[in-house]
Structure prediction request, 267 residues.
Amino acid sequence: MTTAPTRRSDRRISPVFLGIAAVTAVSGWAVWTGFADNAGLAVFLFVTAAWIVSLCLHEYAHARTALHSGDISIGAKGYLTLNPLKYTHALLSIVLPVLFVIMGGIGLPGGAVFIERGRIRGKWKHSLISAAGPLTNVLFAIVCTAPFWLDALSGVPDTFRFALGFLALLQVTAAILNSLPIPGLDGYGVIEPWLSHKIRRQVEPFAPFGLIAVFGILWIPEVNGAFFDAIDAILRGLGVGDLETYCGQDFYRFWDGDPSQYCTLNP
Prediction:
């Protein structure tokens, strides 16, 4: 069975994605300039839109790597357009990750695009396809934290700095959680090609529950505390302090009150 090659229209960036990117840019400008009357609302829009952009890029990385690895059906499915509505599991890929950010300030990974693995030859290619998503989050985290570890924050407004810190926290948590070797997550997808057929068959029924299991485990106070201690240590290594990340979250949750009285860096 063959599939028509990817057409140029299959690669055209979706207006939906462009709209989300525009919201990111405009709300980011509002945070930077203090244009919005409610700074928290501007931070909320900026971080949420930027988070959705990163989710789209995460799925795009999976799809693009799969295309170059042999699955030429990717284009016809719309995955190369960056349109989140084209994903196999839009609820898992976009809605739930955004809800997790709103509820708990954690970047849980979403569902993956549907890849026809039978078209792909070679264990390394399968592993690389799975690794492409978390690596995108790592790259996004590097971009968000670059002003911190490059010591390039002179003139950056406090609120924008806080928003970047919180966005970096989301990217780091998403990269780490999605790299766990748990069925249903990309980390397991990296090692799965190297497992025996027997083990893969035994593990397969648990794949749909991997994300739920991670979420449940993180509800355990001791696990949650140890996890975020590790995240804070990583962010501090990148120059992002606790004040930036947690004040960023406080601004993001603007419905809980105005944190500007205690979240300030510059006199």
